[in-house]
Amino acid sequence: MPELPEVETVVRSVAAHVTGAQITHAEVSSRRVTRGDHEKTARGLTGAIIEAVRRHGKQIFFELDSGLLYVHLGMTGKLLWNTEPGKYTRAELTLDRGVLLYDDVRQFGRFEYFREAPAFISTSGPDALSVSFEDFFSRLRERRGPIKPLLLNQRFIGGVGNIYADEALFSARIHPRAKAGRLSKQRAQELYGSILRTLKLAIEHRGSSISDYVDASGERGGYQLLHCVYGRAGEACCRCGAVIRRIVLGQRGTHYCPRCQRT
DNA sequence: TCAAATGTTTGATC
DNA sequence: GGATCAAACATTTG
C-alpha cells in the first residue's frame, strides 16, 4: 500500500501520539507478520517505553528503551490510533495513553520485535530523500537494466514505489524502459530532482489514497488527485494531450506518456 | 472467472 | 558473484 510519502505521513501521525509512551500490554495474533514468533514480539514489547519513531525508506522503527519494533506496511498494512480492532487486526498495543493497532489484510507486512537491530536492515539502500546526487548517479551508471524497476529496488534507493516511480519518470520525461546506465548526467540530474520534488510534494499532501490508505488517524491523503500518469491509462496526458499508456514492466503496472517520455 | 492491487523475498537463470 | 526475472505470498475488488 504505502510508499515513502504515505509511510512518512503515518510515522508523523503515530509519533505524535506514542513518543514517550509505555506499552502496558501487547496482543500479537499473526504468525505471518512476525515471521513465525508472535510470542517473542508480544513479550519483547510488553513494558517497553517508546523513545522515538523513525522511518528509513518504507521501513518504520519504533526505538524502545530496550530493543526495537520493526514495522513494514507491505501492501495493506496500517497503523491506527485509538480505533476499534477489526477482522484484520494483527497486533494491538495498549499504551498508557491509548491503543495502537496494526491492521493488515494481505499480511505482506511485518510487525516484529528485535532486541538488536537485525542484519537485513543494513541491506536497504539510502533513503530516497537523503541520497546525494553523486551517489545516485555513480550507482545508476553501473546498471544495465531499465530505469523503472531499478527505482523500485529498495537496495538502490529506499522509499520509491510503483506510484512515485511512474510519477517521477513522467516529471523527468524519461521512458520507464530507458536503460538506467545510459542516461546522461543531465537527464539523471533531472530524474534525481523529480524524485525529490515528487516525494516532498506528496508528503505535503499527506500521501496518495488509491484504495484504502489512511494515516494513523484514519485520514486519507490527497496526492492521488495530482497524479499525472499513475492509474490514468487511456486518459489524456496533462502536458501534451497524448493518451497515457499502461504496460507491464518488472511485473508491475507501469504508466507513462508515449509522447512526452523518451528512452 | 479473470485481472489487478501503494511490496518484498526467494530461487532460477543469464 | 551480481544482475535480472518470474513466482510466491493472501485477500479484496471490479
Describe this structure in words.
- By secondary structure, the chain is α+β, with helices and mostly antiparallel strands.
- It has 2 domains: 4-123, MutM-like, N-terminal (N-terminal domain of MutM-like DNA repair proteins, Alpha-Beta Barrel), CATH 3.20.190; 133-256, Orthogonal Bundle (Helicase, Ruva Protein, domain 3), CATH 1.10.8.50.
- It is built from 6 helices and 10 strands.
- The chain has helices at 4-18, 38-45, 133-140, 147-152, 162-171, 185-204; strands at 23-28, 50-56, 59-64, 68-72, 77-81, 89-95, 98-104, 110-114, 245-249, 252-256.
- The strands form 3 sheets. Strands 1-6-7-5 form a 4-stranded antiparallel beta sheet. Strands 2-3-4-8 form a 4-stranded antiparallel beta sheet. Strands 9-10 form a two-stranded antiparallel sheet.
- Strand 9 and strand 10 form a beta hairpin.
- Helix 5 (162-171) crosses helix 6.
- The radius of gyration is 19 Å and the shape is elongated.
- 43% of the residues are buried.
- The mean pLDDT is 94.
- The structure holds a DNA duplex (14 and 14 nucleotides).
What's the layout of helices and strands?
Blueprint: H1 4-18, E1 23-28, H2 38-45, E2 50-56, E3 59-64, E4 68-72, E5 77-81, E6 89-95, E7 98-104, E8 110-114, H3 133-140, H4 147-152, H5 162-171, H6 185-204, E9 245-249, E10 252-256
Antiparallel strand pairs: 1-6, 2-3, 3-4, 4-8, 5-7, 6-7, 9-10
Helix pairs in contact: 1-6, 3-6, 5-6
The structure holds a DNA duplex (14 and 14 nucleotides).
Whole-number count of domains: 2
Instruction: Please identify the top-level CATH class of the largest domain.
Output: Mainly Alpha
Sheet of most strands: 4 strands, antiparallel
What's the order of the H and E elements? HEHEEEEEEEHHHHEE
Beta-strand fraction estimate: 15-25%
What is the average per-residue confidence, as pLDDT, rounded to a whole number?
94
Structural class by sheet pairing and helices: alpha+beta
**Radius of gyration (Å):** 19 Å
